[in-house]
Write a structure and sequence with these properties.
Largest sheet: 5 strands, mixed
Number of domains: 2
Shape: elongated
Number of strands: 5
Strand order of the largest sheet: 1-2-3-5-4
Helix content: 55-70%
Number of helices: 14
Structural class: alpha+beta
């Protein structure tokens, strides 16, 4: 029974690590992958039992004179990273650093709860093991509070935007592991069965949580300012559009009066052909100048994500200034998408910028379709093509159809998409039109 509780407790601890990992990188928690984690866990245990690989940390400790705890923690980190890289995330930089952080926090939480149980059981082994099952539930609840309520995903996304190099990430990973191992080693020096054995790590975790709350507040204030600026910009663009529509209506009203006078004179002369020509011209001008703007405004009303709406207002204004023909459709209201919204806006912005850059000096046109369906969200950007494009090379560093740092080099776009296992991109050229589709499932 004791062995079963011990194995079950360790398995739950491992599962909590990968639940947190998926939540932080905005992946949907996969039951299938969590089952694979359990298989990995038992497989690793079997390998250690058969090949005696569990003795390696002890051998290294004897060889180097470094405390065994360091090598045991390093072994856990390596196995967890292998599982994360194999099952969840092929982003090397992110998986290394994030696993180091999550393992450290989860192990520290596990250690605090475990020491608390040992203290409460007063050294009674039977009571200690009976309390293990409630402790496992408390472990999951604590990790849930840390990840969800402290919005760790948002904190990590802010960190990721800094775009550190692999060497920097590796250095920070080593620092995280070193600090955790040093802390764990110091806590081992505390006398067993004393209150300090769990009060000190509990206090340290409390300080860590306070630090994260403070940082979240700073990030939140930054987001609020960015959001306010975005709303102000969006409102200004909206007002400008309304003013243009109003001005067009005034112009149309003036032209309408002149045309009505012309039609009246033509009717008196009985010139039906001229009357038909004048009415046709009147309808065409209305469709082109006013109806088009009204249609775009109606389409934008379906986008209920303010960041994306603000981006589209800005891009549509730029497209109008460039005198580029744009057809836009938003199929079904867009309220949420399964991707960080700032990354989604960066992706859409890159696609639109490349399309604008391709057609602005030619008589080309652009199509934009945003389709929000039950199973997936699609962004489709299509534009006329005036240069030869090698689809095999467009995601390579430095590739361009129009010179250095210009044109359709999409390496930055690919880097963003590589962060997400639920986001794909499809590129094709059909009838001299360049089409790119982003799918978020």
């Amino acid at each position: 029974m004791k062995v079963f509780i011990s194995i079950f407790g360790n398995l739950c601890w491992v599962l909590s690590i990968f639940w947190a990992y998926q939540k932080i990188i905005y992946q949907k928690v996969s039951f299938k992958k969590m089952c694979y984690v359990a298989i990995f866990y038992f497989g690793i245990g079997l390998v250690e039992e058969v090949l005696h690989t569990g003795e390696i940390p002890y051998y290294l400790s004897d060889l180097t004179g470094i405390d065994i705890f360091f090598f045991l923690e390093l072994e856990i980190f390596v196995w967890c990273w292998i599982i994360a890289y194999t099952l969840f995330d092929k982003n090397l930089k992110r998986s290394i650093f994030l696993i180091a952080c999550i393992c450290s926090v989860c192990q520290q939480t596990f250690f605090i709860l475990n020491e608390m149980l040992w203290f409460l059981s007063n050294g009674n082994v039977q009571i200690y093991y009976l309390l293990n099952l409630p402790m496992i539930a408390l472990l999951f609840f604590t990790i849930y509070l840390i990840v969800e309520k402290l919005n760790i995903a948002r904190i990590y996304r802010e960190f990721e935007y800094k775009n550190f190099s692999f060497i920097q990430i590796l250095g920070m990973t080593i620092i995280v592991l070193f600090i955790y191992d040093l802390l764990s080693y110091c806590l081992q020096m505390i006398p067993v069965k004393s209150k300090e054995q769990f009060l000190i790590p509990l206090f340290l975790m409390f300080i860590m949580i306070l630090t994260m709350i403070y940082y979240i507040q700073m990030v939140s204030l930054k987001d609020k300012k960015k959001y306010s600026d975005m709303l102000l910009k969006q409102q200004n663009l909206y007002i400008q559009d309304l003013e243009k529509i109003q001005q067009n209506m005034r112009t149309f009203k003036h032209d309408y009066k002149n045309m009505m006078s012309s039609i009246y004179l033509q009717s008196k002369e009985g010139n039906m052909q001229e009357i038909e020509s004048t009415i046709s011209k009147l309808m065409d001008e209305f469709d082109e100048d006013i109806d088009k703007k009204m249609n775009l405004t109606n389409q934008l009303a379906n986008i209920q994500i303010n960041e994306m709406k603000s981006l589209l207002y800005s891009k549509i204004t730029e497209i109008n200034h460039q005198h580029i023909s744009l057809h836009m459709e938003v199929l079904y209201p867009v309220q949420t998408i399964k991707m960080n919204i700032m990354d989604a806006c960066r992706v859409l912005g890159i696609l639109l910028d490349n399309a604008i850059d391709e057609v602005k000096d030619h008589e080309g046109d652009m199509n934009l379709v945003l389709s929000n369906q039950e199973d997936a969200f699609h962004m489709i950007v299509e534009n006329s093509l005036f240069h030869d494009v090698d689809i095999e090379k467009i995601y390579q560093e430095g590739y361009s159809t129009k010179g250095t740092q210009r044109g359709m080099g999409l390496i930055s776009l690919q880097k963003i998409i590589d962060k997400y296992s639920n986001v794909t991109i499809a590129t094709q050229i059909v009838d001299n039109r360049f089409i790119q589709e982003i799918t978020i499932v």
